[in-house]
Amino acid sequence: QPRRIGIYAGQSPLSQKVALMVTPEQTPVGICTSSGTVGHSLSFGMSDATVIVARSAALADAVATAAGNRVKTPDDLESVTGFVSGLNGVLGAVIIIGDKLAAWGDIQLVQM
């Protein structure tokens, strides 16, 4: 069955408002999130959520961290989605910072 994967983005007004829809045909995939504003982990970026969909969870985790570290302001969204789009095995990305959202790839966003 299709699965709706909610995106928690802390204090962003977009938090828990959008989700990824993943269909059985798209699996297996790995989905990981990195954040500079949510949680206790060290991050060099300021995104509220950097979500990566990739062919493996390990790749999704590494790219979420690398991409998230590059997001300092909303002005970085275009360059970071460009960075992600050039990586082999990455299927899609959703990046949220404040009230801004960027999405790229073979993903379907839906409302929560």
Question: How would you describe this protein?
Answer:
This protein has 112 residues and is an alpha+beta fold. The chain has one domain (28-106). The protein is 21% helix and 34% strand. The chain is built from 2 helices and 7 strands; from the N terminus they run ββββααβββ. The chain has helices at 57-70, 77-85, and strands at 3-6, 18-22, 30-34, 49-54, 90-97, 100-105, 108-111. A 4-stranded antiparallel sheet has the order 3-4-5-6, with helices on one face. A 3-stranded antiparallel sheet has the order 1-2-7, with no helix packed on it. β5 (90-97) and β6 form a beta hairpin. α1 packs antiparallel against α2. It is globular.
Beta fraction: 25-35%
Low-confidence stretches: none
Mean pLDDT across residues: 97
Number of helices: 2
The count of β-strands is 7
For the largest beta-sheet, the strand count, sense and barrel status come to: 4 strands, antiparallel
Question: Which structural class best describes the helix and strand composition?
Answer: alpha+beta
Q: Note the gap between the termini.
A: 17 Å
**Helical proportion?**
10-25%
Overall tally of domains: 1
Order of helices and strands: EEEEHHEEE
Describe the global form. globular
> Rg to the nearest angstrom?
13 Å
- Which strand order does the major sheet show? 3-4-5-6
